[in-house]
Amino acid sequence: MSEPPAPSAVSNKASRIAGLRTSSAILSGRTRTLTEALAAWTLAGPAVFFLLVLFLLPVISVFVIALTDWQFGAGTLSFVGLANFRAIFADAGFRASLIDTVLYVLIVVPATVVLGLLIALLIECGKSCRSFYRAIHFLPFMATLTAMAIAWEALLHPTIGLVNQILSAIGLPTANWLRDEYTALPVLAVIGVWQNLGYAMVLFLAGLKSIPQDLYDAANVDGADFWFDRLRIVTLPMLGPVSMFVVIVVALRAFQAFDTIQILTRGGPGHASEVLLYTLYRESFEYLRAGYGAAVAVVFLAIVMTLTLVQVRVMDNKVHYQ
Amino acid sequence: MNPTSSSNCLSPAAAILRHAVLLVTGALTLVPFVWMLSLSIKAPGEIFRASFSFWPAQFYGVENYTKALTKAPLLRYMGNGLIVCALVLALQIIVCAPCAYALAKLRFHGRDLLFGMVLISLLLPYQVLSLPLFILGYQIGILDTYAALVFPYVVSPFGIFLFRQFFKTIPDDVVHAARLDGLSELAIVWRIMVPMALPAIIAFSIFSVVSHWNDLFWPLIAVRSENMMPPPLGIMAFRNEEAGNDYGPLMAAATLVVLPLIIAFIVAQKWFVEGLTGGAVK
Q1: Is B225 exposed, middle or buried (0-12, 13-18, 19+ CB in 10 A)?
Q2: pLDDT tens digits, residue range B103-159?
């Protein structure tokens, strides 16, 4: 049998719709809610299962493990209360890691935000080559950081690296950048700035686009025709909320620095460039001290959560503001 | 549109200054890429003779790239990366889209609770969860397999959040019309919502593929054997074997690992910027 001709299909559909309408009218409100709820939980079921197993239960277990003396492979464990937390804060290595992380963030965030803003302003103030400049500055953000860290290592090589070659050519002192306890962390921070600059820039570009032209016109009428006046009176105040947002997302990324440390310094020399995430990795998966590692994870989580909650507040304020 | 210059164009001097500064910062940004590329086509002798020149005196690219592809299973690493990224992305869309539809368009008891679960998961940095996830992977006996690399990412809270936002902008009438046409709820998700939310799907796909192609932290924990390694872990292993002495092939390998995303980025710049900064909502 061939397909039924179109008109009959339409009338079929019409009668089906009529049928549906009557049946849905018959269905009581409660049954309809019930079928909708059933459909919803069926659709969301897999996601709910995986959210529980891969996010919520693990985060609870991190807290539980942090209260035990468990080591990987050990058959037994006992609850030791807050002993792990006392241990990490008594550990000079962990305190060094905490300080290094804060220093790293304190270098990366201001440098990234200021440079990102400057480049965004420069790109936006002219009309030509905008997407070209945007692309170039954004490139490091999506390039595989592990591979680029290896390229940076070649640049910073004490004898054959480009950096030292240039420095000695112009008569400046050279250094063994990644093996010197005074330069290791700042150099890693420079790489952090290099990587995140384009990200900050793109966020600022979006912020600049959302400033209404009227404000510039109004400022012009008020006699602000020098570019610096417009920048001071309109652009920077209007970028306030965006800037706060950029500061926090860049800080979040800086706190999560890992790849460059793992490839370039492994926290060394000594503890000179050890950051929290690297400590977490090494304690948990190289020294296999699960309880201790979990305590580090809890501290790390506390910092990241605090920053994220500040970010949520900022976002809320921004919404109210508009 | 023109924050610092208002309606009129920049003066010629200012325009030149703008280009000058941006060209300098752009060139500085590109230095690591250029140096990597340059070393990847130089002979060992020339690398250690320390010179400024970008172009080698003797072109050694063929040897370096051949060595990178043969001494380390680089193609295998990249194949692994491709398989893992594809599996992760496919599973994320399959799991997240129906859930996002339920959150956006259906009314049911517990919806706020479910959305709260998504938001809490969204806030958790994945590195914190690595310890329990490692134990889970060990218990079900999948460590050192593709499954180990994929399973923590089967559901993406960010994906659910992003799709939900997009689905909410699709009018309810579309859903009602589809129901009247006799489509099941699941069919509405896949035949109506997902095609209409294509921009969100593309942005999310770029975000997902870039993050998982580049990830080092979890693969470092989840796999040990060389033939399971994704590109970042593989190139790290290659470097450790070479002990940093054979720069040419190492830089060739690094170039090959970075190349696929860079080419994709150049082709679809707008989408990349959108996909990767949409993640800022996170």
Answers
A1: exposed
A2: 999 988 889 999 999 999 988 988 999 999 999 999 899 999 999 999 999 999 999
* Phi, psi dihedral angles at A68 (to 5 degrees): -115, 170
**Chain B CA closest to residue A120:** B22
Are B56 and B75 in the same domain? Answer: no
Q: What is the pLDDT of residues B176-214, one digit of tens each?
A: 999 999 899 899 999 999 999 998 898 899 989 999 999
**Candidates B10, B108, B117, partner chain A, best to mutate (most A CBs within 10 A):** B108
Report the CATH number at residue B208. Answer: 1.10.3720.10
| Partner-chain contact B216 A145, CB within 8 Å | yes
Q: What predicted TM-score, i.e. pTM, was given to this entire model?
A: 0.86
A41 interfaces chain B, CB cutoff of 8 Å: yes
Query: Binning pLDDT at 50, 70 and 90, where does residue A129 land?
Result: confident
Domain identity same for B132 and B202:
yes
Say whether residue B273 is in contact with chain A using an 8 A CB cutoff: yes
Q: Closest approach of chain A CAs to the CA of B197, in angstroms?
A: 18
Residue B219 falls inside a structural domain: yes
Dihedrals phi, psi of A79, to nearest 5 degrees: -75, 130
Residue A223: domain span = 84-321
| Cross-chain CB nearest to A122 (options B22, B121, B182) | B22
Q: Complex ipTM above 0.95?
A: no
Do the Cβ atoms of B220 and A281 come within 8 Å?
A: yes
Q: Is the same domain home to B242 and B176?
A: yes
Q: CB distance from B157 to chain A under 8 Å?
A: yes
Query: Do B37 and B84 reside in the same domain of the chain?
Result: no
Please tell me which residue of chain B has the smallest CA distance to A136.
B26
Span A152-163, average pLDDT: 88
Range of the domain at B208: 71-281
The three-state DSSP-derived secondary structure of B156-212 is CHHHHHHHHHHHHCCCHHHHHHHHHCCCCHHHHHHHHHHHHCHHHHHHHHHHHHHHH
Q: How many domains does chain B have?
A: 2
Q: Rounded CA gap, A276 and A285, in Å?
A: 14
- The SS3 call for residue B261 is helix
Q: For residue range A68-114, what is the model confidence (pLDDT) as tens digits?
A: 888 877 777 788 888 889 988 988 889 999 999 999 999 999 999 99
